[in-house]
Specification:
The chain is an alpha+beta fold. It is 17% helix and 32% strand. The chain has a 6-stranded antiparallel beta barrel.
C-alpha cells in the first residue's frame, strides 16, 4: 500500500518516488535490502490518493473511500508524548524535569523532560524569552535541551552512519545527488565523502536546517532512491571537516 514504485537498473532494484508526491513514501523504505525488494509489489505507485479513493468508491467501498488521512506517527492515536506516557508510565518520575540551556550551556528555564522535545521544535516549549526559540540540541544524559534561534539551526555539513547504499560508486559520482533529512522535506543538493570510521560526511550545497540525530537521511538521483543512512551525533564534526576538506 505504499505510494512508491520500483525500477530495475544495472541488475539492482531501486525504490522510486510515487506519482503522488504529496503521499510519496519512498523516504521510509531505504533500509530494504535487494533480496526483499525483488519480491515486492507497489500497486499504488502510479496512482494519486484521489484516484485510489475513486477506485474504492466505484467498487462499492464507500466508507474506505471517505476514510481519514493518517498523519504523523500513523500507528498511534493522539500525540506521541501521550503514547510515551502510556508505554512508560513511570517516564515522568524516572526522567523528570530538566533545564533549558542556551548555546553556552547557561540554564535559562525548566522543561518537562527531554523525551518531549524534538530538534527544530518552536511551538509548545513553555518558555518565554522575548524572541522565537527553537530546540537546537538534546542531551539525554544530562536531561538538558539547548535553545537558540532559527539561524543557529542552519548547517553546511552533517555526519551520517549505518548507511545502506545500493551502489556506492554511483552515489559518489551522481551529478544531481540530493538528500532528504526528514519526511516531506525538500531534497537538498549535496556531496558525500566516506570516512575511515564507516561514517559519511555530507556537504549541503544549499541551505539545510535542523539536523536531528537518529532521523533518516535518504539520498536521491531525481526520484530514484540511491540509499540512506541514519543521521549521527554531530559532535566533533568541525574537526572532521577540517581534516577532510572537499
Amino acid at each position: 500500500g505504499h505510494y512508491c514504485r520500483l525500477e530495475e537498473r544495472n541488475g539492482h532494484q531501486y525504490i522510486v518516488a510515487g506519482d503522488d508526491m504529496t503521499k510519496d513514501q519512498s523516504y521510509f523504505l531505504w533500509r530494504l535490502p535487494q533480496e526483499i525488494l525483488r519480491r515486492f509489489l507497489f500497486p499504488l505507485g502510479n496512482y494519486t490518493k484521489q484516484e485510489v479513493r475513486e477506485y474504492l468508491k466505484a467498487k462499492g467501498f464507500e466508507s474506505k473511500a471517505k476514510g481519514g488521512e493518517s498523519m504523523e506517527v500513523c500507528f498511534i492515536e493522539g500525540d506521541y508524548r501521550d503514547f510515551l506516557r502510556q508505554q512508560c508510565p513511570d517516564i515522568d518520575t524516572q526522567i523528570g524535569p530538566g533545564y533549558f540551556v542556551d548555546s553556552k550551556g547557561v540554564k535559562i528555564g525548566q522543561h518537562k523532560g527531554f523525551p518531549y522535545y524534538t530538534i527544530g521544535q518552536r511551538k509548545g516549549l513553555g518558555i518565554a524569552l522575548g524572541h522565537p526559540a527553537h530546540v537546537l540540541r538534546i542531551n539525554a544524559e544530562k536531561n538538558t535541551v539547548m535553545l537558540g534561534t532559527a539561524d543557529d539551526l542552519k548547517a553546511e555539513y552533517m555526519l551520517v552512519e549505518d548507511a545502506m547504499i545500493t551502489d556506492m560508486k554511483e552515489l559518489l559520482e551522481c551529478p544531481n545527488l540530493t538528500v532528504r533529512i526528514r519526511y516531506r522535506s525538500k531534497p537538498i543538493p549535496c556531496q558525500v565523502l566516506p570516512l575511515e570510521n564507516g561514517q559519511m560526511l555530507v556537504r549541503f550545497l544549499s541551505e539545510a536546517s535542523a539536523i536531528a540525530p537518529g532521523q533518516s537521511a535518504v539520498f536521491y538521483d531525481g526520484q530514484r532512491v540511491l540509499g540512506g543512512a541514519f543521521i549521527a551525533s554531530q559532535r566533533g564534526i568541525y574537526k572532521i571537516i577540517a581534516d577532510h576538506p572537499f
